[in-house]
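Researcher: Sequence recovery benchmark, item below. Answer with residues only.
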């Protein structure tokens, strides 16, 4: 049923639930997993004191790659094929674009991410992904 499952994360607790569910589904369907982290350039666009925007982005990317490798290792431990991708941009655009380019059969993501705004059922990124793609999305 599913050959490729895209699992985007921002490292938050909510997103981690999506990662866990995505890995479980991949194991159930023997699907490959693509773990994706998008450095939100709007959110991380202000330079920190004594630093630059580019240095901040590189630091976030390094931390993200380490986290993604941990997720991919978990997938490989149960015999799944897994790859990691880290990029910059608007999260929903990058998630949808990557899913379409990689021919993902399913996107599994947390209902909310790092902002965890509980005023709406879905976070802004998840809502935009659900509304703007033809690919099935499971919001966990």
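Model:
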């Amino acid at each position: 049923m599913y050959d490729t499952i895209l699992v985007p994360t921002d490292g938050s607790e909510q997103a981690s639930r999506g990662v866990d569910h995505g890995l479980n589904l991949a194991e159930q369907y023997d699907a490959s997993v693509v773990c994706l982290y998008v450095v939100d350039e709007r959110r991380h666009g202000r330079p920190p004191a004594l630093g630059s925007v580019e240095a901040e982005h590189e630091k976030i990317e390094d931390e993200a790659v380490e986290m993604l490798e941990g997720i991919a290792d978990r997938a490989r431990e149960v015999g799944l094929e897994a790859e990691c991708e880290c990029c910059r941009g608007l999260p929903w655009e990058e998630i949808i674009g990557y899913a379409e380019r990689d021919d993902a059969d399913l996107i599994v993501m947390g209902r909310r991410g790092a902002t965890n705004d509980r005023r709406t059922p879905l976070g802004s990124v998840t809502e935009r992904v659900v509304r703007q793609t033809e690919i099935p999305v499971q919001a966990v």
